[in-house]
């Protein structure tokens, strides 16, 4: 069989086993499996699974601990013509129960030590690899095609319950070809496996290694558990195992950067380090690149399980240091076979430089979501602009820069709630405001890590809140001082309502920011004290644990000051220019003395209304968008309110200068002002009656 004929993942590994049967496929501690032994043992286990009820087209949960046996089991499921569902056996009970119920597997492949938990979590038949008897009949491998299901990868659950992405053999093979080309993978590579079984990076690691004929080295510890001793042992393990390629999540990469900066050590022999799973800023990528040197490629990778793990990559080498590197995350260009778009509110590609929703097309797109046809239809949409006519809406916001590099802004659903099919227009201002504030907060010299998210401290009340992990010994890193810092630098542009100092940002099992575990800011009247002042309430509201931080009134105060200033300037403009544009319109010479004060008050109100209209047009659109209506209706409502306020000034002045019998001028005024006013009123009625857009998060 030639490589071109390997149209399934297990056939590709079988090819490697025939070409180099004695080469080491998997190594964990002192235990090693060669490619021939791996393939033969997978075939024997496939026969056992078939006898236990795993049929072609079925599903098998693979829940094994760290070691070599898990890779035997994964290949065995594929050889049986079924799809594997990777599940970490030490995961919380709630996650075990959810995945086992949702995946409804034919069998669960595990070990005796995990049998009790898995049996309690679901009713599927368990096959323990360390106790199963050999098959009683010869095994005949079923026919499997590239379009058959290979695995179900569950998402990290950052926006709700994890959902299963249906990944076909051709998806994994397409992703493998992209990795092989961009990463330069060869059989001489030694690829480190650090991820837990449940995460898509785990599958990506072993596919990259075993598909290439390289050696997969499994860490004896799980870095996702966030133990300092494990991280401290990583450089020595990398050196001892002669690792050349590894991938880390952003949190681990940050901790590794701090470790290497403190110890002066490096990762000798590593030619490629990729980092993903969360927003990683350019200054962080460049900093790790400097520590590791030019011999190591440090890539920022971006992707979703639904698009077979990785879709784009960015190499920071040769990128000139630029102002604002601490506020931007560059995720680069698509892998071969992948296409990336940035879509506007109408679901069509935007020109370069415009922010919108990131969409992915290409051979890596999953079949859809398991048991969720509505989510599949909402997330995988028809797209005439894509060669395959189908793209994945990621729920992420970004833009394609002028050089074609994709810039990642934020996950929109984590800022303002779940995304609908084309909701970017309704949430984009808030997403960008949160990302802008987060970048500025990171720029504070006393802040080590930061996040800005939208929270709901009480029903119906939403506000941006910043969270900061501060460096010890820095002055001005209390909540009030950081709020003032943001207020000065953002100059009134969507300043978070509070900044909450926290010892650490809470993380999910995938290493991503756990927004549900962030503490709420202290309620109004119980904010943290200013430096040198009396302490307010030190205890604040919580979602789940963590200390409450100080609230700053920077957002509301700055916005209010800006609005008041615009109203005053607009009113002053109207007052100074009325007689310039409408000579004689405010002349009260013919008005009886007893009525003049009333007309002067009327003119003042008209000027103030004009100023209010200007302020609303400049500052009011984000507030309109927060109501959750469509972007087009929100824009019309915003302009309608502005028209209702601004139009009084020219209309009343022109009316006073128009003779009672000047019918042409009267007619022009009716159509120029009154008809648009009626239309504006209709728009506002529709806006108020239209229900906000909602959708189920992916």
Comma- or semicolon-separated keywords:
698 residues; 14-stranded mixed β-sheet; Luciferase, domain 3; alpha/beta; GMP Synthetase, Chain A, domain 3; elongated; 4-stranded parallel β-sheet; 23 strands
Strand and helix map with partners:
Elements: H1 9-19, E1 24-28, E2 31-34, H2 35-51, E3 59-62, H3 69-79, E4 83-86, H4 93-103, E5 107-110, H5 115-121, E6 125-128, E7 149-154, E8 164-168, H6 169-183, E9 190-193, H7 200-212, E10 215-218, H8 228-240, E11 245-249, H9 250-263, E12 272-276, H10 282-292, E13 297-302, E14 312-315, E15 329-334, E16 338-343, E17 355-362, H11 373-379, E18 380-382, E19 390-400, E20 406-411, H12 413-416, H13 424-442, E21 447-458, E22 461-470, H14 479-490, E23 498-501, H15 554-581, H16 593-619, H17 621-625, H18 631-646, H19 648-656, H20 663-689
Parallel strand pairs: 1-10, 3-4, 3-5, 5-6, 9-10, 9-11, 11-12, 12-13, 22-23
Antiparallel strand pairs: 1-2, 7-8, 13-14, 14-15, 15-20, 16-17, 17-19, 18-19, 19-20, 21-22
Q: Quick recap of the structure?
A:
Helix content is 40%, strand content 19%. By secondary structure, it is α/β, with parallel strands linked by helices. Among the domains are: 337-430, Luciferase, Domain 3 (Luciferase, domain 3, Roll), CATH 2.30.38.10; 444-552, GMP Synthetase, Chain A, domain 3, CATH 3.30.300.30; 573-689, no CATH class.
